[in-house]
Amino acid sequence: MKKLLRLFSLLVLLLPFTGHAANEGIPSTLRIGTAANYAPLAFMQNDEFQGVEADLAKEITRRLKVNNRILVLPWEELISALEDKRIDVIMGGMSITKERSQQVLFTEPYMEVGQMALVRVSELVRWNRPGALFREGVRIGVIAGTTGEDFIRSDMPQVVVTGFGDTDSAVQALLDKKIDTFIHDAPTIWRLTATNATMNPELFGIYRPLTREYLAWAVRRQDKTLANALNRALTDMYSDGTLNRITRRWIPVTVKVGK
């Protein structure tokens, strides 16, 4: 009887600790950092954070039973804000790269993307042929400092590369025939050609990925408990169809989601 009483007392003492451990490493309010300049993944509209990442942020915090606070920061400050503990997770359409992986801990990817080409409708037949974009002298526009620029300069040294500071400038250069094609990541090309509200009838997106890239969320390298919790929630969202449903809401083309 005494042994049973001691065992019962030990279990009672352990219960509060066990409950606390389940949430250890997960803040009660998850501070989510985003640049909110990457439609349809993450953008501001009517002073509200919207897009794929916005819906995922709501769903993730609901499943983790925590609150969320959205902090909009310049893209180049997101990783430093994470390291300085101003935010807990980056959810802004960030692709996994070797360099970034040395600074942050990525979750499992939630979407597969890649670089795609944007061309003028009037020249679609020319550029839709296999290998056409890789020919010597082709004038290709990219956004400076992106994985798209890295890809073009390393894999297509025979082309003429022009770097732009933003998407609007690159698109205008394409419309003005100052470049032959604009190569950027898939979400941008989808936004410019697949969504009625934002598409330009003079432009056409070639939906054949030129690279394979993966989008994921990022936490501090030491925050493995948080990363594991996000991964579990992500796995559940993939299994029950929530991830696919959210993606389809914002991106009206076939996209590979989940693992």
Can you give a write-up of this model?
The protein is an alpha/beta fold and 259 residues long. It has 2 domains: 149 residues, Periplasmic binding protein-like II (D-Maltodextrin-Binding Protein, domain 2), CATH 3.40.190; 92 residues, D-Maltodextrin-Binding Protein, domain 2, CATH 3.40.190.10. Helix content is 39%, strand content 25%. It has 10 helices and 14 strands. The strands form 3 sheets. Strands 1, 5, 6, 7, 8 and 14 form a 6-stranded mixed sheet that branches. It has a 5-stranded mixed sheet with strand order 11-10-12-9-13, sandwiched between helices. Strand 2 and strand 3 form a beta hairpin. It starts with a helix and ends in a 9-residue tail after the last helix. The N terminus is likely disordered.
Offer a concise description of the structure.
Helices cover 39% and strands 25% of the residues. It has 259 residues and is of the alpha/beta class. The strands form three sheets. Strands 1, 5, 6, 7, 8 and 14 form a six-stranded mixed sheet that branches. A five-stranded mixed sheet has the order 11-10-12-9-13, with helices on both faces.
Note the main attributes of this structure.
six-stranded mixed sheet, 259 residues, 14 strands, five-stranded mixed sheet, D-Maltodextrin-Binding Protein, domain 2, 2 domains, elongated, alpha/beta
Give me the secondary-structure topology.
Elements: H1 2-23, E1 29-34, E2 37-38, E3 42-45, E4 48-50, H2 52-64, E5 67-72, H3 78-83, E6 89-95, H4 98-101, E7 105-106, E8 111-113, E9 115-120, H5 124-127, E10 139-143, H6 147-155, E11 160-164, H7 167-175, E12 181-185, H8 186-193, E13 203-206, E14 213-219, H9 224-239, H10 242-250
